[in-house]
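In the design runs reported in the main text, the only information available to the sequence generator was the tokenized backbone. The following block is the verbatim input for one such run; it is reproduced so that readers can re-run the procedure and compare outputs position by position.
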């Protein structure tokens, strides 16, 4: 049996009043956009709920899209039946059988909206549960702590039957909390940081630094694929490809010691801040996690962050690696991230990067590089912009 409808819970957002209805409206718009290629779908708003009528479109295909709509907290496949006892009983049984997950304890909750229906809710609970019990050996009724609650709503024209609740991404609807630049490497962490920022309602543009020809074209392709995964949640994302070779080489010509990485990172942040200004973003999102590597000590992060005035959001800062990996797997970026690639920062990497850089010393080194500002501006000027959509076909695997 296939579901006839999908019932949406737009966002059990902990918001009140006006904000809430505004946000629900945005989520609903996003829902419609996400499934616009299914032309037979129709949408019905009823009693504060949103229903999608499938009209023979595939539930499986539609639900895949819904799982990526930001702000959508959950949804349920709904089976419909005409308002006749036998029809309701057999549909309810089929809906139970659809679950097919060996759960033994259930309860039926009937709500009679249509008072003309001849049996009241209590009678119907028994009539439906009794029918299911008889048909499926091994099931038990447990009204206090059921594993499955089968809900039956008797409406004016038909009965709605549903039990399963599919968890959505939740969070805030796309872009409702402003816009940020995501510094995206090809690693595991920054795509996860990007996802968490998107889920918190930030619209993103991605910024990637490459040191072509020292870093390969395939590592740029890899970054595009990571952006494509994020685009699954956000629609097309603009990716800024920053040529970093010249700055790296020039810094390395005059300074090769333990503060090299600190200097590079400060340059990256400065460029990203300029791009943020040019493209109307008011924060920078990065994937640092405290303690992971030398540049991710709190002192190091402080000295690097001081290079810019724009706020830096580091969603992973207090997360364990295994939590980060779990999210990377959920959003399907892990497999891409673990493919080998060269990050621009590994070029000219000193053997012992500083874990406790001094801001004073770093600033005085930068002062001696009187060409630095012009180089930063030149990198911004030479940055290429690419729009990356969700449907970008993976070409990456073929390159290995
Ligand atoms: P990731 O897994 O995201 O690469 P990481 O643990 O390797 O992170 P670092 O290499 O120290 O950490 O980088 C810290 C952060 O700096 C990254 O999460 C990312 O936001 C940013 N970053 C690093 N390299 C690049 C790059 N080539 N382009 C853009 N941003 C970068
Ligand atoms: Mg990295």
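Verbatim output:
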């Amino acid at each position: 049996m296939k579901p006839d409808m999908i019932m949406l819970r737009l966002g059990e957002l902990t918001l009140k009043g006006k904000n809430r209805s505004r946000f629900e409206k945005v989520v609903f718009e996003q829902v419609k956009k996400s499934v616009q290629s299914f032309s037979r779908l129709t949408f019905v708003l009823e009693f504060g709920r949103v229903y999608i009528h499938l009209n023979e479109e595939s539930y499986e295909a539609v639900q895949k899209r819904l799982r990526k709509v930001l702000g959508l907290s959950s949804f349920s496949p709904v089976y419909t039946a005409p308002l006749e006892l036998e029809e309701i009983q057999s549909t309810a049984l089929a809906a139970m059988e659809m679950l097919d997950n060996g759960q033994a304890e259930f309860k039926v909750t009937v709500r009679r909206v249509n008072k003309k229906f001849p049996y009241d809710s209590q009678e119907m609970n028994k009539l439906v549960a009794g029918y299911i019990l008889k048909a499926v050996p091994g099931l038990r009724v447990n009204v206090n702590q059921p594993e499955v609650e089968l809900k039956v709503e008797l409406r004016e024209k038909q009965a709605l039957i549903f039990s399963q609740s599919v968890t959505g991404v939740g969070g805030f609807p796309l872009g409702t909390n402003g816009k940020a630049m995501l510094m995206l490497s090809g690693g595991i962490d920054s795509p996860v940081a990007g996802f968490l920022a998107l889920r918190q309602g930030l619209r993103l543009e991605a910024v990637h630094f490459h040191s072509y020809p020292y870093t390969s074209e395939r590592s740029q392709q890899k970054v595009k694929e990571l952006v494509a995964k994020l685009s699954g949640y956000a629609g097309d994302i603009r990716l800024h490809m920053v040529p970093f070779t010249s700055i790296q080489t020039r810094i390395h010509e005059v300074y090769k010691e333990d503060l090299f990485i600190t200097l590079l990172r400060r340059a990256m942040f400065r460029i990203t801040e300029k791009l943020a200004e040019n493209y109307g973003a008011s924060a920078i999102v990065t994937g640092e996690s405290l303690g992971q590597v030398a540049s991710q000590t709190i002192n190091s992060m402080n000295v690097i962050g001081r290079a810019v005035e724009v706020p830096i959001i580091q969603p992973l800062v207090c997360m364990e690696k295994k939590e980060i990996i779990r999210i990377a797997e959920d959003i399907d970026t892990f497999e891409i991230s673990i493919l080998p690639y060269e990050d621009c920062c590994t070029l000219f990497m000193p053997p012992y990067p500083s874990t406790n850089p001094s801001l004073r010393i770093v600033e005085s080194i930068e002062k001696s590089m009187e060409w630095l500002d012009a180089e930063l501006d030149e990198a911004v000027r030479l940055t290429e912009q690419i729009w990356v959509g969700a449907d970008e076909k993976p070409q990456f695997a073929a390159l290995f």
